[in-house]
Amino acid sequence: MEAILLQILNGLDKGSAYALIALGLTLIFGTLGVVNFAHGALFMIGAFCAVVMQRLLGLSFDQVDPSKTDFLGNPLVVQMPYVEKWFGPEIGAAIIDWSVPLAIFLAIPVMIALGFAMERGLIKHFYKRPHADQILVTFGLAIVLQEIIKYFFGANPIQSASPEAFAGSFDFGVLLGFDPNVIIYPYWRMVYFLFAALIIGGVFAFLQFTTFGMVVRAGMADRETVGLLGINIDRRFTIMFGLAAAVAGLAGVMYTPILSPNYHMGMEFLVLSFVVVVVGGMGSLPGAVLAGFLLGILQSFASMNEIKSVIPGIDQVIIYLIAILILLTRPRGLMGRKGVMED
Amino acid sequence: MFGLSAKDTRFLLIVMFLTLATPILLQPFPENSAMAQFNAGYPDLMQKFAIFGIFAIGFNILFGLTGYLSFGHAAFLGVGSYTVVWMYKLLSYNILPGLILSIIISGLFALLIGFISLRRSGIYFSILTLAFAQMSYNLAYSVLTPITNGETGLQVYSNDPQMLAGANAPTSPHLFGIVMRESSEFAVGGWVFTFNNGYYFCAIIAILAFYLSMRIFRSPFGMMLRAIKTNQTRLNYTGLNPRPYTLAAFVISGMYAGLAGGLLAAMDPLAGAERMQWTASGEVVLMTILGGAGTLMGPVLGAGFIKYFENIFSKINDNVLHSWFAFMPDGMEDFLVALVHPFVGKGWHLTLGILFMMVVIFLPGGLVEGMQRISRLFRRKKATKPGGPDHEHHPKPAPHVAE
Known about the structure:
The structure holds 2 protein chains of 2 kinds.
Chain A: H1 2-32, H2 39-58, E1 60-69, E2 75-81, H3 82-87, H4 89-97, H5 99-121, H6 131-153, E3 169-171, H7 172-175, E4 184-186, H8 187-209, H9 211-221, H10 223-228, H11 233-255, H12 265-280, H13 285-302, H14 305-310, H15 314-329
Antiparallel strand pairs in A: 1-2, 3-4
Helix pairs in contact in A: 1-8, 1-11, 1-12, 1-13, 2-5, 2-6, 2-11, 2-12, 5-11, 8-9, 8-11, 9-11, 12-13, 12-15, 13-15
Chain B: H1 6-20, H2 22-25, H3 43-66, H4 74-90, H5 95-117, H6 122-141, H7 145-148, E1 154-155, E2 174-175, E3 178-179, E4 183-188, E5 191-196, H8 197-218, H9 220-230, H10 232-237, H11 243-267, E6 270-271, H12 278-291, H13 298-313, H14 318-324, H15 330-340, H16 348-362, H17 366-383
Antiparallel strand pairs in B: 1-6, 2-3, 4-5
């Protein structure tokens, strides 16, 4: 029982990341009908927004500290971050400590701008081209984005810590009446899950309860008719592309304390997220979220020692195995609609 | 000749000549000259041209003809490599049994994967093949370690049985005594030409592979595959079941990939799981598209192009750049070096990505289409000359071999 609960919890954070990326992929596919292979790269760029934020906040100048001396007896020159100078040492240190959550405010405009640029500059010209062409050109774009990041930040993973307040682990078991230290769960992963739930909820609420969302949903169902009603649906779809890019970017920002960002992390997540989208059903938003969490949890179950001893290697292949099974038995995926990508 | 039309025979002969003369053609610059770094006539690279040419030709039979985009072809490459190294370990360093077996085993593997994956088409097919390839890759790294030797990679150890190896047998891959890594060098003037046994072995197989794909392109079977790409629904209505044809194409291209993987191990007796990773599958897609999918020559061109730039571009470092721009004023020189620096050396993938995007955006038919456009441009210029023949009353220029 404890083990099962623990695995469900462990699967949640990875599942949240899959769900967020898959949600963005599905938004783009559902609105623009474009298969975006560069979405993993957007996730990666989001993660590097956190790195940039960390470096920006860490910018410092040399200052002579009269109270300390170095080993020669001269006054010590210390590095003083600008933030600490402007806001005082305590608030400044706290700001630096919170650089990852603060990076959200950097990531949102950056990702939306990047999304707009991508859609207007490149994807726009590929609406009428076959899906294979879309896959290929976005695949090329992903390589380019990845290499640019590699050029500026190097090939090694860059560590970035979560705020001090979330450093420890939460003893989940005590809450449910188990022995202490049986089910412990890092605070940050919990934060990540809540954050993901918030974003997913926000996106759904936006689509469901605003006029803008209603128009977008109408456009997803029948683009031409909405256009004929005198609504500029292209512009709204571009905004949705920016939104999808922002969702991927935010997923990346908050994931940095869990996995140190490196330039090829996007590709790894992309392959899995595509599997998630296909399992959930192309074009179905709830399907993408459901499949994301499902596969994340199944993956963590498969990495339990008890299961690995029965079926060796299952933890490596479980996601792909599930995808194959689903595709062969339910070609539309878990919640796919009729007539999407069936040509 | 060879069951081909006169035009195709001419084309095949040209390809044969180009392949066999590669060691000379790719050494256009004298040794010791500043341009010598652009020479590609060294055995390692030439072998890769031939091997990845075979890989891309095979991939093209599936993707170019039927339009099914497989993202998992690297799995067959890896299977081929593992088979050949296992044959080294069990029998001897003779490459022939391993190569034959690698074709058979990868064919069977392709039959299995293709039988399942081809139940779906479009992006679902891509994801299914990708899933199978990633599964093979992950398994090769973890559970199948007794067979694949995991991260270390499979190689021959001195305590392996090697049952057929004679007392004086060569201790590296060979074909009945012809050692693959041996080569003879000829110096003519400032030029040094290297004729490598391994390259010629690969080249002959590549020519055979090319000939076979030419026959497939021209055969009724090839027409059938094209019909599948053009309109599968109509094919169904005519009462034909396209599945056996696509499956055959999938198995054939899997066998090509297995052969290419086997040749990789025949040139260098090592096999690692990273050959099966999806980036390797992506690479063959890049090669085929870059050269021109659905054309005979395109994939080979694409493979050569990518492998050439991978080797040459990644060798260019800052010192080389400085020597290039040395004739300029200092500030200008530094500026240009800084400008070019991100695109060469370690950053050559960036160049590849940009190039690939350009090709997909502006030249969906790849390099072959580019060449056709250029040649058409020249032809049109000739035709518009005053007094020239009126092209309205002339037969259309013969379609390119691949059309």
